[in-house]
Every structure is written in C-alpha cells, then in structure tokens.
Specification:
The protein is α+β, with helices and mostly antiparallel strands and 191 residues long. It has 4 helices and 11 strands, in the order βββαβββαββαβββα. The model has no long low-confidence stretch (mean pLDDT 94).
C-alpha cells in the first residue's frame, strides 16, 4: 500500500451536457484492487461473481469478474487499506495487487452513453448484449479498457485503463460526446 498521495492523470473532474443527459466523470481516485486466483485456489464461489459479471457489496465495493479466475474491486473510498482488509482472507489462495496508482477510472452516465460508446468501440451496447452488471474488456478509441455496466438512476459505464492512457481516453470520450451536447473546454480538444 502506497503512502504517496494519489494524483489523477485526468485534467478535469467532470464534463456534462447542458441538459445533463450525459456526464463524463473522473473516478481515478477510487481504490482499485486486483484479485487473481492461484492455481487450485477455488475462491470463485466464495466471491460470488462469475467472469463477465459484477455485483455491488454492501460496503460499496463493486466486484467485477474481469477474466477467468480474476476479479477487480472498485470502491469510491481512497482508503485502499480498508478495502485490502476485506480480501486478506484470500491471500493464501490468490494474488492481491493494489492497482489504485496504476489505473485510471472514468464513468460515463446518461441516456446516450451506449450511442457514444458505439461510435468509438466495436461492441453492440444494447441491453440484450451488455446488460446491467456486465463486465468485459474492449478497445475504446484504440485504448484497451475494462468496462463495467453499473446502472443506478441512469445508464452508467465504468471504464478502467492504464494510468498512462487515462487523459487520452478522457479526451476521446469528450470528443465523441460533443455530438450529444457535451460541453468540452478547448484545452481538451483532440484536434
């Protein structure tokens, strides 16, 4: 666990359209923990999340089945130590890695999010193909991302990528969002 204060790679916290039907928000400060099952670890039933799915724990931690035998945990709290405590029981059967400083995290929220993503990603984002709770990996604007659909009052996707690609991904999403009324300051223009 690092004692270095977290610094986001993304230059603005939130962008939104005037009608508030689209928001792009920097969530990079979230705690991000990788849990990778060791050979013979057999923890998937205990975790209760299948590959390709996700669930929200009562403590606010979103557990995502990122890959077979691998889960990523996201929590709005920047207190990584508290989140690590909740998974230490798996330490003999899994590799546990704090990814907080190494990953950027962005949320897309609103009624036109699926249309925006379909402009820059070759996935069908319809409800039938990507239901609430889906977790998968894809190239978004040429950046390799983990995507999680986690609806609340509206459609929401979380996109996680390598920290070094975070600002570029944010700019790509902002550029694609202009068509949907997103207000983008000139310093974030791609062109």
């Amino acid at each position: 666990m690092s004692s270095i204060p977290f610094r986001t790679p993304i230059p603005v916290e939130v962008l939104q359209s005037d009608d508030q039907m689209l928001q792009i928000r920097d969530r990079s400060v979230y705690s991000k923990i990788l849990l990778r099952e060791r050979r013979g670890g057999r923890i998937s039933e205990e975790i209760g999340v299948e590959y390709g799915g996700s669930r929200l724990r009562t403590d606010g931690t979103l557990i995502c089945g990122s890959r077979p035998g691998e889960w990523t945990l996201y929590n709005a709290s920047p207190d990584v130590g508290r989140i690590l405590e909740t998974v230490k029981t798996y330490s003999e059967r899994a590799v546990i890695v704090d990814l907080t400083h190494g990953r950027a995290l962005i949320s897309l929220e609103g009624s036109c999010v699926r249309n925006l993503l379909e402009k820059i990603c070759n996935i069908d984002f319809s409800d039938e193909m990507v239901p609430d709770g889906a977790s998968f990996s894809a190239s978004v604007g040429t950046i390799s991302c983990d995507l999680i659909r986690s609806d609340s009052d509206t459609t929401m996707f979380l996109l996680a990528c390598e920290r070094s690609s975070g600002e570029y991904l944010f700019r790509v999403l902002a550029d694609a969002g202009k068509e949907f009324g997103l207000n983008v300051p000139s310093q974030l223009d791609l062109h």
